[in-house]
Amino acid sequence: MSWTSFGASQILFSMVLVCTALASFFLAPHTRTSKAFLHGFNEDGSSPGLWALTLSQVTTWIFARSLLTAALLAYSYGIVGALAYTAYYLSFFTGGILIDRLRFHHGFSNIQSFLADRFGAVGSSLFNIVIALRLLSEVFANLLVVGLIFGPDGSGTYIAAIAVIAAVTLGYSLIGGFNASIKTDVLQMAVFTVVLAALVAIFVVDPAFSFGTALGTFRPSLDHGWNLLLVALLQVWSYPLHDPVMTDRGYIADRITTFRSFMLAGVLSSVCIFSFALLGIHASQVANPGEPMLTALQRVMGEPTMTLLNIALVVSAVSTLDSTLSSAAKLAVADLGLAPQSVFTGRIAMILAMTGGLALLYTGIKDLYAAVALSGTLSMFLAPVVFFSILADRRVALWSYVTAFTFAVTGSVIFFLEQGKYANVIEPITGITQLYTKLLLICALVMLGGIVAFFLGLQQRLGERRERVGFELHGEQHVTVSERTR
Predict the structure, then answer these.
(1) What angle do CA 369, 375, 378 make, to 5 degrees?
(2) Which of 44, 82, 240, 439 sees the fewest Cβ atoms within 10 Å?
(3) pTM here?
(4) Spatial distance between the Cα atoms of 359 and 376, rounded to a whole number of angstroms
(5) 26 CB contacts (<8 Å, ≥6 apart)?
(6) CATH among 1.20.1730.10, 3.40.50.360, 3.40.50.1820, 2.60.40.2250 for 8-370
(7) Model confidence over 57-112: pLDDT tens digits?
(8) Alpha carbon of 369 to those of 65, 297, 375, 479: distances in Å?
(9) Tens digit of pLDDT for each residue in 135-164?
């Protein structure tokens, strides 16, 4: 979008964003209790309904970085690239099962408590470091996309756009916290759905697009997107657990509502992200050799269509930012206990999280998928925790957990060095040259190493175990404990 002349498209763009911002401030409740601000309950202590939770899950996971990355992967690798990024949204199904297991079988109110029970302070501390980095990267990545929509990196419009969006999002988040995030997510999802439907309708009727053409982008080559699809299928077991934006919404409502919200969110978000990815396939069919995706789309589809696309990106960025700030407040105050639980301390945590995300903009990182790949690879130390500890309910030695974490950190560092061309470690040993095939090898080795470590660290089953039977009362989990012989 060109901002040199303020035409009809820019007016529409500005009006939609201003109206969405004002409506978000209007919908954000002035939260007075820490239970609402930090944990997402309503002011009267009740839980959000099924559709509020579902739509909040969807819109917070369809963030600006995801939309752009899905389209770019489809632009480069066709239908397989679109499927590869959509596969990450299977995390809703695995995440729903894991949260249900943690809450109602194991009886824990957050992941940190479970890890502390199984692996002590070391287990929860390593996990908290990872999710803190994840939250900061989400603030950074979504602000980056917003800035690039308005102008080149470092330009006046780039800086101004980031400053305005950061201020608006932080403003209404400070008013209502987690509860405000859920309420405004419903509005933002409604705006996003209308815009996405319009975008899909526009390119579907374009004579240059056909589903047959989209399917024709299929290539039976590992390097043509299949490597990314396999990476996603490896990472979805651990990916949801390291994303508090998703998991925090799993501790608010009763068991049935929570499980249904995850399943519905998985279906809806997969449809949305795949539909948006088709834009990338369409752009690849009309692009000139070497032409960037967004340039090709603007040339063929015109500025009005690009305005809709930019609206979708900015609205999705805002919806994710407020949720990320809420999760940062919950992590710092409620989960880590760094300060007394109150609205005031939650607001301080939000301000610090936004400041940290803004600071990351000066690191020079611009590859959006690389951030996803690094985060997903680092999260893979949780995969053996899922298989052995959460699902199989086995006790495992601490050294196994630390070893799995070490494998994941090492894999992430190697990929970072390879991606940034700081080092060439894998090619001399394996002959693999394609970056994402290297990533697949790294992920496979990280998962295998973690599973072997956990298998070797299995501890003898105890003669008795605790059976936790939970029930919900006004959003609070009450747990009775009985002993049962295996």
Answers:
(1) 140
(2) 44
(3) 0.87
(4) 22
(5) none
(6) 1.20.1730.10
(7) 998 888 777 888 899 999 989 899 999 999 999 999 999 999 999 999 999 989 99
(8) 8, 20, 10, 41
(9) 988 888 888 888 888 878 878 888 888 888
